[in-house]
Amino acid sequence: EALESKEVFWKTIADQNWNSVWESNYPPVNIDNRCYIRAPFHEASGFEYDILIKPKMAFGTAHHETTALMIRALLDMDVSGLQMLDMGCGTSVLAILAAKKGAASVHAIDNDQWAYNNSVENVALNELNQVDVRKGDADSLITIPTYHIILANINKNILLRDMEVYTKALKQGGQIFFSGFYDSDLEDITDHASTLQLNYQNHQTLNKWTCAKFVKQ
To answer: The whole model's pTM is what?
Structure first.
């Protein structure tokens, strides 16, 4: 059979400062005029929480709805003196915010090497010593009641698969926040959570993405 003939076009683009071009297309994120997530080349905001994130290949720059929802939930929490876990941390933006809000210690865990490297860089950039970045997944958790609050912004399938492990690592009466799934998946999340004595509290939705809060009873 004869191959279909196709035309190919090309265009020569003048050399530019590609780093500057990239930076100009990477905007900072303002969450409710309280939290400002920016790259080192952006000016500081003067907001209550100013977070530096060096944008690379890790998820969690707050441009995505699920990260924004998690940040909003975290902004309304009193985490002073608590032990926290940022599971599937990406850039560690949530762990960094938790530390800035006074958490005693935060474990930031991701199984991706890029995310781990970027998290270490971002924690140092924000000059925080209570954030402990680790490379791993749910299998790396010590399944004893360790955390007062767990933040898990991943995806539906992983949340369902690993929810039991998260629950074992959560203190009695502790709070766990799930995100990374659509509002149409909330019933599946809540149904599975109920089998693990995680009681649904509330949820927030943004452009069909959802963040849901549960308490371990």
So the answer is: 0.87
* Residues 159 and 180: beta-carbon distance below 8 Å: yes
Please report the sign of the dihedral spanned by the C-alpha atoms of residue 126, residue 131, residue 135, residue 137.
negative
Instruction: Give ∠ CA 101-105-109 in degrees, rounded to 5.
Output: 105
Phi, psi of 84 (to 5 degrees): -130, 160
* CA dist., res. 188 & res. 207, Å (int): 19
Model pLDDT for residues 121-134, shown as the tens digit of each residue: 999 999 999 999 99
- CB burial of 110-148 (b: ≥16 within 10 Å; e: otherwise) equals bebeebbbbbbbbbeebebebbebeeebbeebeeebbbb
Q: pLDDT tens across 26-38, in order? A: 789 999 999 999 9
